[in-house]
Automatic annotation (TrEMBL):
Taxonomic lineage from the root: Bacteria, Pseudomonadati, Pseudomonadota, Gammaproteobacteria, Pseudomonadales
GO molecular-function term, one example from the UniProt record: N-acetyl-gamma-glutamyl-phosphate reductase activity
Organism of provenance: Pseudohongiella nitratireducens
InterPro entries: AGPR (IPR050085), AGPR_dimerisation_dom (IPR058924), AGPR_type-1 (IPR000706), NAD(P)-bd_dom_sf (IPR036291), Semialdehyde_DH_NAD-bd (IPR000534)
Signal peptide: none
Domain Semialdehyde dehydrogenase NAD-binding span(s) in chain numbering: 3-141
Protein name (Swiss-Prot/TrEMBL): N-acetyl-gamma-glutamyl-phosphate reductase
Pfam families, per the entry: Semialdhyde_dh, Semialdhyde_dhC_1
Amino acid sequence: MIKAGIIGATGYTGVELMRLLAPRKDVSIEVVTSRELSGTPVADVFPNLRGYLDVVFTEPDTETLAACDVVFYATPHTVAMNTASELLARGVRVIDLSADFRLQDQAVWEAWYKTAHTCPELIDQAVYGLPEVNHESITDAKLIAVPGCYPTAVQLGYLPLLEAGLIDTSSLIADCKSGVSGAGRKAAVGSLLCESSESMKAYAVAGHRHLPEIRQGLTKFSGKDVGLTFIPHLTPMIRGIHATLYASPIAEVSQEQLQALFESRYADSPFVDVLPAGSEPATRNVRGSNRCQIAVHYLPESQKIVVLSVIDNLVKGASGQAVQNMNLMFGLTETAGLDVVALLP
Ligand SMILES: NC(=O)C1=CN([C@@H]2O[C@H](COP(=O)(O)OP(=O)(O)OC[C@H]3O[C@@H](n4cnc5c(N)ncnc54)[C@H](OP(=O)(O)O)[C@@H]3O)[C@@H](O)[C@H]2O)C=CC1
Ligand SMILES: CC(=O)N[C@@H](CCC(=O)OP(=O)(O)O)C(=O)O
């Protein structure tokens, strides 16, 4: 039985971790933290978990958390970097859903997150938790940096093209849309129903903190510098990321060749579903599931490749991917507890 702790269990990703882990017979959720709701039973706040999880929120406390085999940080950026090293020193495996250990260049991280990194010595030890790329190293990892939601959708979409060296890397364009749960559960005017429904807008056009994370991954896949324009948009849905990715081939390509490339690259990836040629994936078809659905199109008239990639930001974009990493770290079946069909409608 794997003993698990969740720091920040009242946020959207924390609640999603509880939803995915509570029914499992091979995992026991021992500690769930919330500073605000310490002392309150989980089911009083989240009645969907009644009968599945009989624990009480507690204050985050290293001593209590150290009794776990694995601790998930479902906390805002800059929390994990202050206490993860104590847990690791006590033999606990750490899976961080925030960005504290995602960027390998400390200076770049500090520039984008606008603060000094308090635990730079762990940056090199952290494994970037994208199993479709780092499957082997995740198995041996003690500390996982779970990728961000946009970076998951964008990297999985561009990966086969970059590894195969098929596209011009100097001017990639990632046009991305997110549901409002991506902004977290904290009260914020922009997340109010009256502000976010019946409307759609781009944001962080001048620079979003996922830009360096995506660029870091794409550069590794291609072995070349990558020029990337990444524009996120807020859309009036709760869950979902839709990424439309543009690329120019450097030599002649065909739809059949691209389709075969994507299908063979993801043949052994249980959570990447390459759709038939001509498909137009929708976020609703991955809602609540850990799947990334991808369609690749070649447009002969403009000579552009367009990849469409959709995920649920809270599942493959965060908590589901975190559980996928846990499964690999503990030698379990990669799909354990994640074989869930998307919710429709
Ligand atoms: N929402 C999404 O789609 C995605 C989120 N992420 C990342 O996952 C992390 C969590 O996101 P999300 O669930 O949306 O966030 P929320 O804002 O919904 O929840 C944050 C949680 O962290 C706790 N918390 C806040 N500050 C601290 C602190 N200093 N120490 C301990 N606990 C703290 C809060 O509880 P309390 O204050 O009561 O302690 C709360 O439970 C973030 O880093 C986010 O960037 C990644 C990918 C997608
Ligand atoms: C819609 C929305 O606000 N999305 C968030 C990104 C989601 C997320 O939390 O990603 P990180 O883990 O990297 O922070 C944003 O743009 O800030």
